Amino acid sequence: MPLILRTYVPAEGSDYTGGAGMPSVTLVMKDGSRLAGAQMCKAVNSPAPGSSERRLPTVVMGGDTYRQLVSGPGTPAGFPASGWDITSGDYDLRYWSMCTNESIVTTRYSDCVYDSNVVLDENRNFTIVVSKAGNRPSNPTKECGVTWLDWGEKGDGAGNPKSGHINIRNMLGDGFPHSIQNVSSTLSAEKDMGPYFPSTRYSSKAEFEARGCNTKGG
Q1: 142: closest CA among 154, 157, 126?
Q2: pTM of the full structure
């Protein structure tokens, strides 16, 4: 079983660990002895760095099981749809992001944008365009006030290039009532999130390019 350390966005000017450094890892054996470094790697039979056998397993569900869930008997028509000072009490959220992901067969992500690199307009609203790289319109740019998110090329990573997921994630600040954590069900998400619920619609490349360039974004 892999041990995974995830870092979101480190403080500006800090290194990728946020200035905390990498943790030291110790293996405690049944007899109470402790192993570290090369001895620990040998004990768990871990391949050497650079070895073709050194892999990080990510599959959490078999492909056959996944396909049965999304396309087997009883699956609703059209499912799944394919293509969505930090400690201060002055902040509602510590962090939010939107990512395109494959499926729970691979758990891989294709692309992500997060709060501080999403382009805002003068009212702090934003538009995120999601498409494959080959279908990207010309105007989802910072200069035009629009953020672009790559849909990726592998779909769900399990054989369906038209499927996949858009995930929205947030970390709470100080009791924000419209957070994703306060959504009680998929049917009540729009009501629970109120004005913070994302508005979505499909558009062709030509239709979006016809909108032109909103130079007020920044």
Answers
A1: 126
A2: 0.67
